Amino acid sequence: MAEDNSMISPEELELIHQRTLRRFDSIVPTSGREGEEISSDIFKGRTLAIYTSGGDSQGMNSAVRSITRMAIYCGCKVYLIYEGYEGMIEGGDFIKEATWNTVSDIIQQGGTIIGSARSSEFRTREGRLKAATNLINRGIGRLVCIGGDGSLTGANTFRLEWTDLVQELVRTDRVTPAMAKKIPYIQIVGLVGSIDNDFCGTDMTIGTDSALQRIISSIDAVVATAQSHQRAFVIEVCQIFRKIKANKNKLFQVMGRHCGYLALVAALASEADFCFIPEWPAPENWRDVLCDKLSQMRSEGQRLNIIIVAEGAIDRDGKPITAEDVKTAVKNKLKYDTRVTILGHVQRGGAPSAFDRLLGCRMGAEAVFALMEMTEESEPCVISIDGNVMVRVPLTKCVERTQMVQKAMADKDWDTAVALRGRSFQRNLDTYKLLTKMRTVEKDNLSGGHKFNVAVINVGAPAGGMNAAVRSYVRMALYHQCTVFGIEDSFEGLANGSFKQFKWSDVTNWAMYGGSFLGTQKSLPTAETMPKIAEQLKKHNIQALLLVGGFEAYHSTILLAEARDKFPEFCIPMCVIPCTISNNVPGTMVSLGSDTAINEICQMIDKIKQSATGTKRRVFIVETMGGYCGYLATLSAISSGADNAYIFEEPFTVQDLSDDVDVILSKMEVGAKRYLVVRNEWADKNLTTDFVQNLFNSEGKKQFTTRVNVLGHVQQGGSPTPFDRNMGTKLAARALEFLLIQLKENLTGDNKVIAKTPHTATLLGLKGRKVVFTPVQDLKKETDFEHRLPTEQWWLALRPLLRVLARHRSTVESSAVLESVQEEDADTHMF
């Protein structure tokens, strides 16, 4: 994006958003049934079919598996339609009944095992007549369509024509009246499978997160060579490919049709210097603005430049901007070694991310319930994720809203186009523009003319996203004309005076790295160290403090806030950003680092499962970290297709283990002849991992063998995922804004800051779609300090889904209190 000074203020954005909602009917979701009690065979005798259509996306197989198994669990007959609408038209072996084992071992595979195709014949009436004939012959009146807006629109057209199609089939003797009477109407449920995330009505589409991971890993891979040769890289995000002669500054070409989501979020995650997206066109003089920006970054010591161009990028006059245009501009004016990289279909390929696997599982299960509860009058719906809750939204309204975005862009109504994309898109855009500006626009300066001293510290175990949060905080603080200090080695470093004053260039490329460059430890402030901490805060005149870390960061802030009466130096605004792979901090539904950890775990489990492919009758026990919190164990088990997960929150006994042995023995007779269980490290002090292995070996006798894999600290490593990078970036920016507001509110006449109220020591967390600052002292009542756990955890409601999809025939029970969804701008990629 261009560095222009016309960024819309939050107040102006809200007015635009509200005006847009008044102009168009809003999409009202209906709550789903996730977490409710569901017994087996409740829909016995009913039939449904599943097909994937249009472009494939990672996570489709997860959805196919979930729909198939949940439907079979509920007593339904399930058909898989191969090759999309083409298979529906062809019939025969293109429509096959599915069994439980049909979808075994597919959750980790990219693409779609049932094939996908764009069908020109289905657009004709004769093609739809053939499709209707095949469905009627098999008694299929319920369809789950997994695809983009075009596929879902085609399904709705098919539904609207059904009565006329059936009458014509009867009239021409292609089906009998008796057969037609059995399927008087069809019902449609859609799941949006698209890497573009361009469908209005859902916060994330199946495949988007995986595509982002593929884009970011590709960009990370070229950073080293770019730094070595001081190159510029131009990355184009597109589907319409043009032949581009390679030169030497590097352009990346990325898919995304005329939606800038992939390009924008990739720009945030990769610290791109410039980003062109269709929803927010560059100024007419973009060549000059671009080259000035790149030159400025080089003068600051940066050795490479990354420019991302979305497909459909244009300037304010509507003139197209291509990767070739950008390369030529940089080469001609700056003489930089510039190269173009076209990522192409690599973005669709590879194993799906853990989030896309989980999203497919959750959406697929909800699709079954939505489909079975429909009546003849029911409108077709799309299963969406709203905040972190599965909901059902009207298909037609979603398609209309999606088309409105394209119309707004065609009319050059950019503000409306951005507003229709949603608050999260706008927040991404605003954060990106702020972080790439090096000069403060006075009207945007939140310091109010003051020169505040602010600091940031990492506390707890390292986790993905820590460095991204620090980078964002530092640059936002510098942008608002603050002096920024980084405190090294947690509270030990703070007590010893290990302060580092940051410059803008000091945090370049921090977002792409895991761990903590500041250094982090699990130590808490103690009675002995508090006087030293107070002394150092006073010495450096620290007026606000951001703590990025896990349970220790949260606990430390409580201790500092409660010691304010004794130490005036602690009477400053403080804020905690939860960052821990364990996701065990109250006040938030998800912590930074947990997404990266789950992806690391899933990748390792995929390898373990592959190892078992050639070794039949093998049971694997995988031990994860997390302390007493079973979040990692549960979500990695669901995302990897594991058979069970043992956790502290759901006590288990020796009898439960013995019952599992019976399940293992039955599974060894059919299917994959493999069993995989994930165990949280502190699930039970007596029923340890070794105990479980010994029991399985003893009970299994010669029927199967058991192996243990303790994953250990590898779960804390790896390159942070795009979600952890972007969420760390946005949360830190929000925290800095909040701290600056509190600094001005608590500034005394002699220019001192005195902040004593509970609302000046907060934790910044995600609840539903809302970013919430909660006083840490208010969160004490929601905390089990002995076990370092929140008293309520939303993800426990997903435990029944794990049991059902793994063929545990137990009743699905509600296990947790779900947070309500509120309209806000938080990213909703939840783990």
UniProtKB/TrEMBL annotation:
Binding site for substrate: 194-196, 231, 255-257, 311, 339, 345-348
Pathway: Carbohydrate degradation; glycolysis; D-glyceraldehyde 3-phosphate and glycerone phosphate from D-glucose: step 3/4
Any GO CC annotation of this UniProt entry: 6-phosphofructokinase complex
Regulation acting on activity, per entry: Allosterically activated by ADP, AMP, or fructose 2,6-bisphosphate, and allosterically inhibited by ATP or citrate.
PROSITE patterns: PHOSPHOFRUCTOKINASE
Subcellular location: Cytoplasm
Residues annotated as catalytic: 196
Catalytic activity field: beta-D-fructose 6-phosphate + ATP = beta-D-fructose 1,6-bisphosphate + ADP + H(+)
Cofactor(s) needed by this chain: Mg(2+)
Region N-terminal catalytic PFK domain 1, residue ranges: 1-437
UniProt keyword list: Allosteric enzyme, ATP-binding, Cytoplasm, Glycolysis, Kinase, Magnesium, Metal-binding, Nucleotide-binding, Transferase
Listed EC numbers: 2.7.1.11
Pfam family, one: PFK
Function: Catalyzes the phosphorylation of D-fructose 6-phosphate to fructose 1,6-bisphosphate by ATP, the first committing step of glycolysis.
Subunit structure: Homotetramer.
Record-stated family: Belongs to the phosphofructokinase type A (PFKA) family. ATP-dependent PFK group I subfamily. Eukaryotic two domain clade "E" sub-subfamily. Belongs to the phosphofructokinase type A (PFKA) family. ATP-dependent PFK group I subfamily. Eukaryotic two domain clade 'E' sub-subfamily.
NCBIfam families referenced in this protein's UniProt entry, alphabetically: 6PF1K_euk (TIGR02478)
Record's protein name: ATP-dependent 6-phosphofructokinase
